[in-house]
Amino acid sequence: MVFAAPGEALARAEEVLGDRPAPLHASVAHQVIGIWQRDFGDMRLALSHLRRARAWAARADSAEREADVLATLGVALVHAGRTRQGLDALRRGVERGTGHTRARVLFRRAYSWWVLGHHREALEDVRRAIPVLRQADDVIWTARALTLRATVHLALGAVERADADFTAAETLWDTTGQEHDKADAVESRGLAAFRSGDVPAALRLLDEAEERYGKLGTPTFMLNIRRCEVLMAAGLAAEALAEADAAIRALDGIGGQSTRKAELLLAAARAARLADEPQTAIARAALAVRLFAGQRRTWWETHARLVLIGARHAAGRGSGRLVADAAAVAEKLVALGAPAAPEASLLAGRIALDLGWTADAERHLAVAARSRRGGPPLARMTGWAAQALRAQAAGSARGVLEACRRGLDVLDDHRMTLGASELRARATAQGAELAALAQQASLVSGGPRQLLVWSERWRATALSAPPTRPPADPALLSGMTAYREIAARAEEARMEGKPVPALEREQRRLEREIRSRTLHMRGEAPDGGDRFDVGRLLARLRDGGDGQLVELAVLDGRVQVLLCGRDRVRRFEAGLLAAAETEAEHVQAGLRRLAHPGADSRLPVVEAAGRRLEELLLGPAAAHLGDGPVVIVPPGRLHRVPWALLPSLRERVLSVSPSASSWLRAKETAPPRGGRQVLVRGPGLATGGAEVSVLAGRYGGATVLEYEDATVPRVLTELDGAALAHIAAHGAFRADGPLFSSLRMTDGPLIVHDFERLDRSPYRIILSCCDTARFATVGADELLGLVTALLPLGTAGVVACSAPVNDAAVVPLMLALHEGLDTGLSLAQALRDARASLPADALHRATGWAFTAFGAA
Q1: What is the pTM assigned to this prediction?
Q2: What is the distance, to the nearest Å, from the Cα of residue 698 to the centroid of all Cα atoms in its chain?
Q3: Residue 233: left if φ>0, alpha if ψ -120 to 50, beta else—which one?
């Protein structure tokens, strides 16, 4: 019962002990309590009860009972870090038991071998156990043994063998009532899905397993470890670190298994390394190494050493000793049959390259490069990264570019299996190094055109295809409705000055649930989208009247300006990216001040900052922009720059795009038939959304949604397929969860996840509210936010705001913008003319600068 209904089993065992049982029954009861404490509670209590169970078994004079207890005790001692004692107890259990009992003991010793990382010994013991368990028609223990064998196969990279065993075990579990074991089987299938490269399925199965464990009230430390692995592969390293650290605290709180603590520390170290927190990674990995060494777990200790070496390298501690350590770890991983061996060789090669040891680097990188030919996507990526570094060291730009192309193709295929736009964006971080290597190689050997191609190759790729539409999942839809209601109640309570901690807790819970369900979606796109073509871009710019596109690439911290137009691509070197980011923050602070009347004295300061920004971002290219329209394609880290503030851009038709490819798609997007207009007015605006009433008169047949009609379901219905939408509503950007950035409607927030449910978002959309053009920068060079959610869904042009603005000053800007649209102008043209029509005071000028036209409509 202890794995079918753990709480009930514990209560029954304690009841048995309260009735002065016979020695045999006392032994069973103490063993059950020991198992419960071992897996779900305090290891000290577990060992105490299991020793008493062994003593009662000896009194009962039952060799079979004693063998069974010795096996359970052996597993507990191994989990407590007392490896030698644990293996000794298991050996004596095997010697004491016979037949069926002995097979169960062999299974538990196999499990212990797996915990210790001795996979060959684990396979040998489980191989001996399974036929006997099958012959005895022991369904439960046969299913456990098959699950264990599958898990060992996974550790050794034999995914197909693991799948066969998991399938056989699941068939057996369906005939039993072992709820904990069933949850474990679902968890194991999640691990198998992850090993085969299916991240969404892995996340879905692990969430399902957690739900099952939750019903049983049992801790989920192994699941935490596995989910950390999947989260890291999905680019969610910070979340993996938070999950691992929280699980460590919970484990320490109950005095749980030392083995699990070491594994959680290793997961935390890996996550910290990926989250660019090398000091945290060093601390967690060093402690994991000590624990694994004390537990005599060579497999695990070696993996922890790999993470520790990588973290030390990331912290700038390169040395010959570190090269030797990485090489030794690589050799040991090969001997252990661990799939991580190429990663260690790549690390040794990297450190050697940093030291200028080219011969050593070539030796290690050549070994790592072998993995590019097969295995899961991220393993092949490791191989191609090694091959690219080999080519770079050999001075072969062509070899670098070929390796980078092949590696990024692998990551493209992996990325497009992910349905959620967030996962697609974050997954690109794994290709950042290859993209940077290719840019450097193209800068040296290929000229501006090739640098443009490689800048585009890994920029805003999450926008290259629409995200998978969220499923018509009743639980997801009801969760979003509940979220909206709770958020609206919390906002109302805040406005009344009431405390809202309970509502905020429920809101966070619903956010986690919504996000979790969207991350389960698999991608539908068959490839990574259209490949970028420089000739096509130049032809489009020529057809548009000698406009120019300015793409900003960043190499070694410096901005490279690629000026595209007039049938050529030219390169100019500008300033340092870090200095530009600092100046952009100063400008944002200045715009916030200017949003309030009486701040006119700040205007010269902001304009001076705009001149400095132009020098840093455009440099000498500013003098070559000509007179036509300009499209700016900035890197993600510069998304908050108010481009209209730069002197050379202030009086011209200006639009911004996340990538040149995205601009081309927007340019080639046809408007929907019918020309339907939708005007939305949300609650709580200082002006009451005054422009909406005027616009309703201008667009006679427009759909106007305001007051009780401006609800999220109604707004979404009307927005779907509209030609033009104007939304006057309070905007809120969520840096901690960009896809929960929102526009406030009557019934609560309209969030980015809502927009992703549209079949086609409006062709043009104007967001006359604060912070709608703010984004979170993730992955290699990706942006998550409201505007970037709209662009892949059919929206060709957006006007949005990157700073807080004065509501009253927005009204004349918006009315002038629509006047321009009435005459057939594009959004960028109309916004330029609208700025020029405003009064020349600081308040109105700052309001105009805060708004940007995105896309090409």
Answers
A1: 0.79
A2: 45
A3: alpha
